[in-house]
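Hello forum,

I keep getting stuck at the same step: I have a sequence, I want structure tokens, and every attempt I make locally crashes halfway through. Rather than fight my setup again tonight, could one of you with a working pipeline run this one for me? It's a single chain of 188 residues.
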Amino acid sequence: MAVEHGLALGAWRLVVAACGLVGFGFAVATFYDPWPALSQQASLLTGVVYLALAFTGDRSPVVSWFRGALAVLLLLVCVTYLTVIQGDLDTVGSLFEHLVTPLVVLADWLLVGRSRVVVRWWYPLSWVLFPLLYLIYFLLADVQLYRNFLNPETADFGATVGLFLVAVVAAGYLLCGVVRPGRTEVAR
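Reply #2:
Ran it on my machine without issues. Output:
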């Protein structure tokens, strides 16, 4: 997929935005209280960010940062939902939130506009921002969702959070390494 320029890039980014918004929209329409779920928040964020990216330039380091941050966030959503939670994809909302949107965002990072990626060494460390913001929300709002594996009242809560954060950082460095091995511009 060599979507690198102009209208084609904008159209692709609109497709990515639509995937995020479709997942979010179906979740809001079908769930009693969709807001506590990370997948709904990540889908909405993806829709908003990619809608903005569809109409902006692509060479800014900020664009690379957001694309990478969303790629690792949605990988976290996808992998956690399909493995740890053992969720299913039997609704449109679940399919888009937990599989389609993560895959198109990953494809955007790996295949689309890759000659324009500017990666700073610290980006993967900063890409934990969205999961950390969700964790703060999770704790302050006393979200009961995910308590079967992420319970602040258990002794292993800190270790579980630590493992998730290490996995996010490792996924970030892996994504940086596969964008353009040996040719990715690593800015200081």
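The radius of gyration is 16 Å. If your local run keeps crashing, start a new thread with the error log.
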